[in-house]
Design brief:
alpha/beta, Rossmann fold, 2 domains, 6-stranded parallel sheet, 12 strands, globular
């Protein structure tokens, strides 16, 4: 039976650490960390995600400073909201909730976020810091995967890692983080020929394809570690990109859906915010094992 990569449990452990950091520095700084989640429109899934993030902030002691703008809000008004948050001394982290309504381009709005307050690690400057191995906010989902692997003592140095998916949100930064940990990394995608032959070479397989139940037993070699980043709502309930019931018997470790990567994504958003809060004051955050 495969070891379950339990993201809920690890997220709880990290939240306790964040509470301790905030308690240690809060009196000296005169305020708690502040995170602003900027939501535009009424996408139901986004509403659930934002509510979960605000609940997580409340658990650890981060102030929620977000705003909800109507679906018809123009780019200039959204940009003005981002600039106000950039200038707000009580705001340490900013997240633009995606997807945006039709007609709003995410690129210019993400670029407008102060890189030091980029809680999602998606600003071009911070992706450059990742590429060069320099300190800075890290993309939350891949950083959460790395924390999950470390917590379960999954060796990466010298191992063959395959990432299925090449998005800038997950796949590309995931590959860079695995490479930085001395894994030999291959990125696969929708046009990869004979995907199963490639993924069967993986010691560590990270699936972020965005396609429900895409990966099955034929894609996985016995003893591999499998991380399922996907989450999809179907008529039969939530599922990931991996056919869990097929892969779990042959994997050495596997992340469940739900309860695997998802909780870690939210927790790393909080980590980026608390680290930014400490860095602005020149204080030690003690979270260097999670964010460089």
């Amino acid at each position: 039976m495969a070891t379950l990569l339990d993201g809920r449990r690890l997220a709880g452990e990290i939240e306790a650490r964040l509470q301790a950091v905030i308690a240690m520095h809060g009196t000296q700084l005169g305020r708690p960390p502040g995170l602003a989640v900027l939501r535009v429109g009424d996408d139901p899934a986004s509403g659930v995600y934002v509510a979960n993030k605000e609940k997580a902030c409340a658990r650890v002691g981060i102030t929620s400073l977000g705003a909800h703008l109507a679906a018809g809000t123009g780019a200039e008004e959204v940009l003005a909201a981002v600039r106000r948050l950039n200038a707000d001394p009580c705001c340490d982290g900013i997240l633009l909730q995606l997807p945006l309504p039709a007609g709003l381009a995410e690129g210019p709005l993400l670029m407008a976020i102060d890189p030091a307050k980029d809680a999602d690690g998606l600003h071009t400057l911070n992706l450059g810091h990742l590429l060069k191995g320099e300190p800075g906010p890290r993309s939350c989902t891949p950083a959460g995967v790395m924390a999950l692997l470390a917590r379960h003592s999954v060796a990466l140095a010298g191992q063959r890692a395959v990432v299925v998916g090449r998005s800038i949100l997950v796949g590309q930064p995931m590959a860079l983080m695995l490479q930085a940990a001395d894994a030999t990394v291959t990125v696969a995608h929708s046009r990869t020929a004979d995907l199963a032959a490639l993924t069967r070479q993986a010691d560590v397989l990270v699936v972020a394809a965005g396609r429900p139940r895409m990966i099955g037993a034929e894609h996985v070699k016995r003893g591999a570690v499998v991380v399922d980043v996907g989450i999809h709502r179907t008529e039969s309930g939530l599922c990931g990109d991996v056919r869990f019931e097929e892969v779990e018997p042959i994997a050495s470790a596997i992340s469940p859906v739900p309860g695997g990567v998802g909780p870690m994504t939210v927790t790393m958003l909080l980590v980026n915010t608390v680290v930014a809060w400490c860095r602005r004051a020149g204080l030690d955050h003690g979270l260097g094992d999670l964010v460089p």
